[in-house]
Amino acid sequence: MSFSSKVKQELAAIPKEDCDKRAYVRDAYIHTGTMAHPKKSYHLEFAITPIVKPRLVNIFAEFNLCPKEHSRNNGDILYFKEAEQIATVLNIMGAHIALMEFENCRIEREVNNAINRVANAAAANEDKKITASARHVKDILDIQRIAGLSSLEKGLADVAKLRLDDRFATLEDIGKKLSPSISKSGVNHRLKKIAQIAESYRGNK
């Protein structure tokens, strides 16, 4: 039975057999469905009549699917925007080749997104390091200008000089260059003390 004839039968019951339910969804998609290319976005929808809507919703519910709804041009729209649900709908319809292509695009998108997240995180960390280094250098130069680095105790002065010598060195690298060497947290602790001293000098001035 075609989808259009089912629409005309307003009192027709929802298909009872699993294969009939799958056929109903498939016919609904053939006549009213559209799907965005998964490389661009995840979106699959059915533009249906009020008669068909509750039947299709009930069938989807039996497959643990819950489509979202909205109205467009005096018609009802049932749509899915989650990849897992779209894959399930394709499987229900028996669109196995389309499902394989969808999953391939989905994997490609997820890999690209993961790569972008890592790249963005690395860039953000680099920005934080540059910002922190600039703050350290400003504190050290203020101390040098106001009281001279000789006003610092030796441990702090050593860290200050190493920071000025290499403004992009990591805290770990600075710690290794000290004699005796200290940990990254040790360098960070000294830089915090330098910041406090610089702030006190700026306040007094």
Which features characterize this protein?
single chain; 65% helix; four-stranded antiparallel sheet; alpha+beta; 205 residues
Describe this protein's structure.
This protein has 205 residues and is α+β, with helices and mostly antiparallel strands. 65% of the residues lie in helices and 9% in strands. The chain contains 8 helices and 4 strands, in the order ααββαββααααα. α5 (96-146) crosses α6 and α5 packs across α8 (184-204). Mean pLDDT is 87; it is low at 6-12.
Question: Which percent range fits the helix content?
Answer: 55-70%
Question: In terms of quaternary structure, what is this?
Answer: single chain
Derived structural class: alpha+beta
Mean pLDDT: 87
State the total count of DSSP E strands. 4
What is the strand content?
A: 5-15%
- The SSE order reads HHEEHEEHHHHH
Biggest β-sheet strands, sense, barrel = 4 strands, antiparallel
Q: How far apart, in Å, are the first and last alpha carbons?
A: 90 Å
Biggest sheet strand order reads 1-2-4-3
- Our Rg estimate from Cα atoms comes to 32 Å
Shape: rod-shaped
Unreliable spans:
6-12
- Total helical segments: 8
